[in-house]
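Recap quiz, item 2
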Amino acid sequence: MRSYASQSRVIAIDGPAASGKSSVARKLARQLGFIYVNSGAIYRAITWHLLQNRIGSDEEERISEALDSVALACVVRDSEARIVVDDVDAAEHLRDDRVNECVSRVSKLPRVREIVSEKLHDCAEGHDVVIEGRDIGSVVFPDTPYKFYIDASPEVRLQRRAAQGERDEITIRDHDDVSRAVSPLVKAKDAHLIDTSQVTVEQVVTQIMLRLEQAGLPIGDVQMINRAIGE
Ligand code: DC
């Protein structure tokens, strides 16, 4: 097991599918001048790679072998971490129907979680980051004082996915994500809960900024520095 010691600031934004966490995390990162990292994208990139190689989500041994031989990198571009698989930017494949269908099953596997956790720590090495996911505050960065859990009613979340025109069985993914043995989706005890069902992204970001300030993050300084360097 690797041990990690990072001086970077990590803001953890966890929550279920279509809760609004991507929009919130991306906007927050931009406002603070932090790097935006979508941990789900790494699980999706791995799932896409396995599908490409016709490896089933139940073939643990073949998955392990595939993970040993693939070059998986998080590359920061335009203040966002992009996932590069064997030199291919996986972005355009991450929301394929087949990836939506298989990603929760792939993300159950301890070896997969271990690799994603390592990649996330690599991303936070030398960068202040806003990371969205399921277990960022509870497992991957348990020591960060900046933890948020973003939720919305199941009806609102289903409507959001439908409006995005995606076929994504979020009820099934929710069940898989909450009930898996390793790092299930759970609100960390010290995470601040925000229900986004009835509020805008801007309102959620404002609420988080206030909370961060109360938690000791020097928001004013960060914004001043970003203005000074022209972000
Ligand atoms: O955030 P998303 O819907 O793109 O995530 C896709 C899947 O990845 C999700 O169903 C479960 C998994 N995931 C995870 O297990 N842990 C994370 N920190 C992020 C995502």
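The chain is about 50% helix and 15% strand.
The pocket of 2'-deoxycytidine-5'-monophosphate is lined by residues 17, 39-40, 43-44, 103-104, 107, 133-136, 173, 177 (CB under 6 Å).
End of item.
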